[in-house]
Amino acid sequence: MKLDEAKKRFIGEWGTFGSQWGVNRTMAQAHALLMVSANPLSADEVMEQLNISRGNANMNLRALIDWGLIKKTHISGERKEFFVAEKNIWKVTRQVIKERKRRELEPLINMIAELKADVEVDSDEANEFQKMMEELEQFATAADTTLDKLVDSDRQWLFNSLLKFMGNK
């Protein structure tokens, strides 16, 4: 398989994986394209290589910047903005975890805390609701703590922990 074919397949598959992970397919494809590009790319190059509109390219590149997965860079003598992706997959993974926690888990924890505080426990049904909120809170807090440890850990600790979890060590 030629390099261009392999890149094209990776970009397509990464887009599919991204949509399964709850990320916009085009955003995941733009990220994949930048990860496997040896040089920074302009929005025009992203647009052309992914066969997407200018608006779609710009929107997804801004989203990737917001997620902390890519950054703008300037090339001497060029007026266009260029973009590069973080190439260290460990840093990418940690950044995705941090962003997903911020966007999904932290709002869930806050909502549960508000609901627990606001609901009057004056019936069996309210008591059941309160119990469910407490269980959800315990789970979400444990997940949050675990993800914090993962983000703060080094790569070797993660691999050793996974091997122990899988029973190989």
Characteristic terms for this protein:
2 domains, elongated, mainly alpha, 169 residues, Arc Repressor Mutant, subunit A, 3-stranded antiparallel β-sheet
Radius of gyration: 21 Å
Beta-strand percentage range: 5-15%
Quick one: overall form?
Answer: elongated
How confident overall, as mean pLDDT? 91
CATH class of the largest domain: Mainly Alpha
Largest sheet: 3 strands, antiparallel
State the domain count: 2
SS elements, strand count: 3
- Strand arrangement within the widest β-sheet reads 1-3-2
Give the helix tally.
7
Percent in helix: over 70%
Distance between the termini: 36 Å
Named CATH architecture of the largest domain: Orthogonal Bundle
What letter string, H or E per element, gives the SSE order?
A: HHEHHEEHHH
CATH superfamily of the largest domain: Winged helix-like DNA-binding domain superfamily/Winged helix DNA-binding domain
Short description:
The protein has 169 residues and is mainly alpha-helical. The protein folds into 2 domains: 3-85, Orthogonal Bundle (Arc Repressor Mutant, subunit A); 89-165.
